[in-house]
Amino acid sequence: MLIDTHCHVQMRQFNADRESVIASAFSSGIGRLIVPGTDVPTSESALELAQQHPGRIFAGVGTHPHDAETLTPEALSAERALAQRPGVVAIGEIGLDYYRNLSPQDVQREALVAQLALARDLDLPVILHNRESHTDMISLLRAHGDGVRGVFHCFIGDRAMAKDALDLGFYLSFAGPLTYPRNEELRDVSAWAPADRILVETDSPYLAPQSLRGKRNEPQHVAHVARTLAETRGVTDDVIAAMTTRNAIALFRLPELTPETGV
Asked: What digits encode the pLDDT tens for the residues 43-90?
């Protein structure tokens, strides 16, 4: 069994066939999905999916750096209320994005700090988006992230960047870019990273694996990422499935697997 630790199946790209996509994931051996929000409405939608699929889908509540300007005091209060509902296992997707800069960088930093505090208050892990912003991300985590655990989602970086995250106690999650042949540095990190600190994800509908480039990504495609991770580490697919599932259960404090259902 695999766990897709980051998929946006609540997004409009799945409006026409959402339930069939979810069913296909479950039937192909993806036992659980974690669905992060990117603002209050998408966090609410993620929670609705978690309520419709209890024990199989879990939600994250958060405001993405692209939408940081929407994190008003009222929105942060709404996040706090949502995050205390059953089925929510993380504050996320939150972070910094200096590549697109769709919100001003100072606003992004303020939103990140506010949501780190929320995660600490509620004892929930964070799901971090970190693009072209590593120096500020690490600085803010050192200054404001004491006691906060979490994951650098869709990690793309070198060993030095990975070590910064790992030294702060964070996990690294690998997505479709791991399957791209040009990403030798990323493959090196995936082979080197500690076995108890790695996860797999799709970030669907984005970042389809190499063999499906240009198509909509789906949770079932996390198997492609897991297979590449197995190759880089020189182990079997089953070893990676067991390892990453165990890590996801630990980080997000998911219910233990049950022999009856396997989920």
From this structure: 999 999 999 999 999 999 999 999 999 999 999 999 999 999 999 999
Beta strands in 117-226 (DSSP E): 126-131, 150-152, 171-174, 198-200
Q: State the DSSP string of 110-139.
A: HHHHHHHHHHHHHT--EEEEEES-HHHHHH
Residue 85 is given by DSSP the state: S
* Cβ-contact 197, 205 below 8 angstroms: no
Residue matched to tokens 């063999």: 211
User: Residue 227 is encoded by which pair of tokens?
Assistant: 């297979």
Residue 5: CB partners within 8 Å, gap ≥ 6?
34, 151, 153, 173, 199, 200, 201, 244, 248, 252
Question: pLDDT tens digits, residue range 109-126?
Answer: 999 999 999 999 999 999
192-216 burial, b if ≥16 CB within 10 A, otherwise e?
ebeeebbbbbbbbbebbbeeeeeee
106 sits in the region (left: phi over 0; alpha: psi -120 to 50; else beta) called alpha
Q: Which domains does the chain have, with CATH numbers?
A: 2-252 (3.20.20.140)
User: Residue for token digits 């001003």?
Assistant: 104
